[in-house]
Amino acid sequence: MASSVCTICLSLLVLATVTMAATPRKPVDVPFGRNYMPTWAFDHITYLNGGSEIQLKLDKYTGTGFQSKGNYLFGHFSMHIKMVAGDSAGTVTAFYLSSQNNEHDEIDFEFLGNRTGQPYILQTNVFTGGVGNREQRIYLWFDPTKDFHTYAILWNMYMIVFLVDEIPIRVFKNCKDLGVRFPFNQPMKLYSSLWNADDWATRGGLEKTDWSKAPFVASYKGFHIDGCEASVNAKYCETQGKRWWDQKEFQDLDAAQYRRLSWVRQKYTIYNYCNDRSRFPTMSPECKRDRDA
């Protein structure tokens, strides 16, 4: 056991010392009200430190959530989140981008709570043209309830990258040449919410929310948005090709980032739709390209 722990620690140390050429510029922390507004159950949001930190509360009556004031077409979006502590089974904390139409595009972080002592599951998904079913699930290499960690999405015309503390955990590349739709011309808002999903979230709905542990609280700060703001009907970004996320170094991961992604895949991935032949007898084209990366 001690040898295993040492190996994990060594792996983390090596990863932490790697310089990433394509690391996005350091986010500037701003107060909640600059970029976001509450969307429902306003009395279940608590503001701390002048609005630089907020808490979302879930009880047996309702959860709550918030959304960005603007719509964005490409950019870098991040949030510092501390998840619900203790027995969080049945709860879901979500942070995602979504467009506002029937054939919507969506880029999801969903944190699935668990019984006390069992690890959180981080599920990611990508919807294009209203079609999702691209779930991947991982365990995190830390306890997300003990402290704030940074969850970010880099979205440009070449790829979508999901990052946890600057470590890429998933890449969804633009595979339009393979006939796969890519979120390209529908501006999206950012959303976050804390809600009850005990019909599916924990062990497929077998573990129900224990309301005696309510209220459940998730904490947020670092409300960073660096994106091209656009109208709901915009088909392109006015500064397309000119922003930092469009430049060559952000059109693909670098070698160090691919090593980190491989580390996550090998050690922490517990489900990947690309490998699920019961649901998808034929592998999706983007999966084949991803494996070749």
Instruction: Give the overall shape, derived from the CA principal axes.
Output: globular
First CA to last CA: what distance? 33 Å
**Relative strand content:** 35-45%
Q: Assembly type of the shown chains?
A: single chain
- Tally of individual helices: 4
Task: Provide the residue-averaged pLDDT.
Answer: 90
Low-confidence residue ranges: 1-22
Largest sheet: 8 strands, antiparallel
Order of helices and strands: HHEEEEEEEEEEEEEEHEH
Radius of gyration: 19 Å
Number of strands: 15
What topology, given as strand order, has the largest sheet?
Answer: 1-4-13-6-7-8-9-15
Given helix and strand content, the structural type is mainly beta
Percentage of residues assigned to helices: 10-25%
Please write out the topology.
Layout: H1 2-16, H2 32-35, E1 36-40, E2 45-48, E3 53-58, E4 64-68, E5 71-82, E6 91-98, E7 106-112, E8 121-127, E9 136-139, E10 149-155, E11 159-164, E12 167-173, E13 189-196, E14 216-230, H3 255-268, E15 269-272, H4 285-292
Antiparallel strand pairs: 1-4, 2-3, 3-14, 4-13, 5-10, 5-14, 6-7, 6-13, 7-8, 8-9, 9-15, 10-11, 11-12
